[in-house]
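Researcher: Structure prediction, please.
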Amino acid sequence: MHAPATASSARSKGLRLVLLGSAMFSLFVFMPTSDNTGMIDFMAHYFPARTLLHHGDPYNPDQVLREYLAQRGQKHEGSLMQGVATHYPYPPTLFFLTVPFAVLPFSLAKLLWGTLSVSSMIVASLLIWNLGTEYEPRVSGALIAFLLVNGETLAESGTVSALAIGFGSIGAWCFLKQRWEILGMVCLAASLISKPQEFVLIWLCLLLSGRSHRKRACKTLVVAILLSLPSVVWVTHIVPNWPREIAGMISGGTSTGSILDPGPTSVSTPGSMLNFQVAASLIYNDPHFYNPVTYLICGGLIVFWGFVTQRPGAPKEIWIALAAIAGLSLLIVYHRRYDSKLLLLALPACTKLWAEGGKIGRVALAVTGSALLFTGDGLWIFVSRLLQRLPPNHSGLLHFLQTVFVVLPAPLSLVALSGFYLWLYASRTAQRAAKVSDSPSVARA
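Model: Predicted structure follows.
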């Protein structure tokens, strides 16, 4: 009787941790901000979609601004909010998700968007925790709670990343547990449509991981095409040159000194980006240097990961494969700090390895916990505000301390996480492949 009681107690404690983290995450979504910029990224989805509903060009800032002023009025006018609301560098596929909200008044649409964001992340967290209960429910609950309470920017910004990560994690759970297959395909398809730079490699992992997963991944791609095709046709009919307009926005946004510039000349808040270009730009701040370096290093690791995934023993280590590719997805292209909640998919592997015990389990917990800490919001906000108290005449010291304690920890912790799980994935897959080749049935063949 003692063992079942202990297991039940562990599950109860783990669940309480997840619910506590979920409650904190919910508060972030609906917490008012002092500068009235809460859910600011939602504006970047709402007003272009509303412009499209009125047969306007969602990629034309002037036309979107007219829609913004008609809804918000002059009292809300501000350069930051206007700039975010009127520049839309997203593909037309995302309108599948945003147009239904644009039909509604802004205040109601914002409330429903925030509610859906919270709900998707909480459901995803509970499902991922459910996987961890097979190994160590308290550790799984603690890791998930830590991820959620460090998700302030994801929650309050209103970015589509919350929905993409929530839906994508739900879809991955459905795939790997082989339950609710249709729901899993729709959720993962929605993530591919809304944030392809985050979930295309997750989808590729499922595509390469055995025949059963491959069939579901192919069906998911078909679902994604069917869901997004009407939006693409609609936008192409109204704005035939939309690819050129998006390319112009992205080109302008990533130029030196812009908000998407990953280098030290960026106008973004230091430490807000976590892709590998941020670290490479400190060596030489030129996109002709840091982009090729990033693509060569991270792209090479992704190719190696793909080679490992083709080996016979790979499907047995799929959670370790997901942990490795989640980190690499965040490193290779532009991502902001709120996108790091994609590491939710790395937590089952960490929990499983910790339950196995030994040095590998301790290292897994260390690298995963460090990545959650350094890519999360709590420590970043605390250190950034602490450094802002330095006297103005210490700008050189401030820049150095920001680089060491604010800018570099996030990408370097992701490098450590990706490298560890990729090494472990390759070594365990090789061991399984060797056992398969040495089995009597294979030898006789």
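Model: The longest helix spans residues 409-438.
Researcher: Thanks, that helps.
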